[in-house]
Write a structure and sequence with these properties.
Length: 73
């Protein structure tokens, strides 16, 4: 009776996962390359290395997985 309409297309969730994954990869990576210049007394000079690399790996896996999902189906 009613037509079903996909909200924002068929690939909305993979696109969202790819966007979050790319942000999780590039954000900490850029913070490692160029840390912020104006720091408060509670800020660190550089981000913690292990946590930053872990976030980058998780973001890369998310983005690649989302891309593979969109290309496969």
């Amino acid at each position: 009776m009613f037509a079903q309409v996909e909200l924002l297309g068929d690939n909305f969730l993979p696109l969202l996962a790819m966007a979050f994954g790319a942000a999780l990869f590039f954000g900490p990576g850029l913070a490692l390359i160029k840390p912020p210049q104006d720091l408060d007394e509670n800020d660190l000079e550089r981000p913690p290395l292990v946590r930053t690399i872990l976030f980058m790996v998780i973001g890369l896996v998310m983005a690649v997985w989302a891309l593979a999902t969109m290309l496969s189906g």
